[in-house]
Amino acid sequence: MSSSGPDDLGEFISRVVDQQGRDPLDLLQILHQVQDRYGYVSAEASERVAREFGVPLGQVRGAVEFYAFLHSSPRGRYEILLSDSITDHMLGKQSLMEHLCHRLGVSAGETRADGLVSVGNASCTGMCDQGPAALINGNAATNLNPERIDEIADLIEAREPLSDWPAKFFQVRNNIRRKDSLLGSALDEGSALWAVLEHGEETVLREITRSGLRGLGGAGFKTGTKWALCRETSSPERYVVCNADEGEPGTFKDRVLLQRDPDRIFEGMTVCARIVGAQEGYLYLRSEYRHMLASLQSVLRQRRKAGLLGERILGMQGFSFDIDVRLGAGAYVCGEESALIESLEGKRGVARVRPPFPVTHGFRNKPTVVNNVETFVAAAMIAVRGADWFAAMGTDESKGTKLLSVSGDCERPGIYEYPYGVTIRQVLEDCGAENTLAVQVAGAAGHCLSESEFDRRIAFEDVPTGGSFMVFNRERDMLDMARNFAHFFAHESCGFCTPCRVGTSLMKNLVDKVCAGNGTPSDLKEIRNLGAVMRGASQCGLGATAPNAIFDTLDKFSEVYQRRLKSTGFEPAFDLEAASGRGRA
Ligand code: SF4
User: The pTM is what?
Assistant: First the structure.
């Protein structure tokens, strides 16, 4: 971080804007660079960026305010964000936060007066298998405990540069516990691309369709259909986007694929590009995974050198495609494909009204295929091994395998790959979970399953999931989970539509009221009414799914709510007697 003055600021912004090519769609990437250099995006920096790009100042300020990882005021030289996922809490996050704040003499959410350090929370950092975790100036620190917190506090007080900190703080393990056809196999570089050239795009598209591959981020849209729709459009300009914004609490399997298998991801994207006729692609990387940015860019450089990206791929005239990695800036809603595209275009990540869908009107309003990391890996494998190989695994409606990110109360958290159709019970057995009370599948937006449902199967036709699998044993209070998710959604709502903006906030207040022991039966009814409105009237999936965990826990673990209620009679939310008493005093 530089402390250079305003003249330097102007020169710097002009230079990076020139380097980037003066395309307003690069706004977010420029703001990252400004923040990297100056520690925050000042009002003056916003004005200069707006001027250089020729965009309204409101667009620049709107972006800075929208994204959690962009700041309009200075932060500490060291910024520590503790992961606020429920599984981090289960591992003692709150007491670590208190210990850290005490050691550094700072409050959570604040910057110390001398500007040395800021401490705050981050939504799930994607390290639930090795929590409690934190981001320290964007670097993932794992397996925190009081001793490590002491060491971190000492290093900060000694102003030790982060590059000199012991490597043990920043070790991120893959924790692969079970491999199947995807993790248990490899692909020779370029083999999927040779397969497309050898068999032709139509044949490979037919194989992808016949394989039954569906979007593995959780939505489950048929991949072959999506690619065919894009291919059939009349536009000469099309795009391929890889959604690496896995922000669903408890999901970290894309982190492992990005770290271990970037070539297969890029290969899958390039196969897609050849089939749909795209020349540009983007991998949208969540800001929490910024520590992988340099290695991903290095793999892209190697692929260009090897003739697997760029002009004349594999020496083939007319086969040109390149990929750029674009960094998100901390917004869960950007996992939704249309919000992701808005973010990719340098705007606030607000979900678009659909239809039209991105496949016809996506990035730059052009036909765009958006698929998840795992989907592109599977597509690359199908291009080489064929539809029959893939379709032989799984169930009728869910072919192939699924990577699960297992965390919470179990002996062996980590990545488990299974053919679709595996039971919840089998996963629990394999990960060493005992005395299990509930499993939250598919993250905060997913569903909470009680013991009577452990014979249900992971599959689109039964329990669909993007990969999150969080285990809760009988010593847990499921209301803690409901409360954590209620806070998560209130924080992550993009604020565009009223049912979600107001609904998530009211829902959080109601759940807090119950947790504090001040709730009444009428509050529970209000939670139901509010949730129904959010489900029916929200603009995108975030608002529509926000009540899921609360409804599930109300239905399946109603006793945890009942025992916290203040009384079984009516209690107004506003205590008139107490308020007027304060006024009389
Ligand atoms: Fe934004 Fe929530 Fe509305 Fe989606 S539902 S557009 S996240 S306010």
Answer: 0.94
